[in-house]
Amino acid sequence: MIFTAILGIYLVFHTPIFKGVPKFLAKEKIPVWIRHVLVPSLTNDRKQLDLLGKILSKFKNIEIVEVLPFHKIGEYKWEEMNLRYELSSVSPPTQKDLEDAINILKSHGLKVRQDFYTHQK
Question: Is 26 within a domain?
Fold first, then answer.
């Protein structure tokens, strides 16, 4: 799985913690903001974004989905620690990539915006 290769850990999104927490938050009507980092070739696949939109649209307590563009600002930290940076060959998404992702998520009735801080640049 690609996340295992990048993160070095295996993420299981169907474990009780991933299933239980969103349902609990929705049941208790606790407002939630989702922050999705858009990484080309990793988290910007149209089918994956469509599925994410379908899943998130089921939860009425989600106030907003922020799309954060991947950046390379912290890459130097990996070099300083003499660690291999798995995303060194990945470029940040284009503005069109961001707009496409936002539109896909909006098509599911979600309130979506580009991350406030990166949007201010």
Answer: no
